[in-house]
Amino acid sequence: MAQYLVPNPAHLASCLRSINGGSSTIVTFINCLSVEVKVNWIDSDGKLKFYKALAPNSQYDQQTYVGHPWVVHTDTAFAVFHPLSGDNLNRAIIDNPTRPGRNNSTTLIPIREMAALPCARSLNGGASTYVTFFNNRFEDVRVYWIDPEGKKKLYETLQPGGTYKQQTYVNHPWVITTVTEPERPIYIFHPTAAPNTTATIF
């Protein structure tokens, strides 16, 4: 499964840490940028561990585990990658989200528990944009906006196969949860400046 990595707010990294018990997998990091990027693992204490300086237009394979997040960064931006499965088909594509011809469809960041949410909150000053949420699961999901105080605000309940277009802003995070009780978070989504982004909920 290929994921185009998109820039994330800097405070997000402080919320992340590796969780033990996930299956082993291989991630291929692909640098499509014209600058070097640095690849870092986030350990179980939330600390960054440097692994690789990836040259422009190059790639490398990294053994890791589901539940172990990675941070890829340049001097000006960073993105988070979460391995999604143990099938050795994970590809983390590092590219400019506004480059002509780039697909604006993006994979959301999986989260396992509400522990990641206290650090997520809306910040003022971001550019206006639109996102279309597409529910590709076999169950209903809820779409929440996280306000500047870090509180969830319900905006939509999506049935399987349903879509919902929402005007929002860069630096305004959204959370996707299950409908069945107890409600469980599935994804957190950070809009980018790319117009008409599609957030596919797997």
UniProtKB/TrEMBL annotation:
Name of protein: von Hippel-Lindau disease tumor suppressor, beta/alpha domain-containing protein
Sections of the chain in a coiled coil: none
Occurrences of domain von Hippel-Lindau disease tumour suppressor beta (ranges): 16-72, 121-176
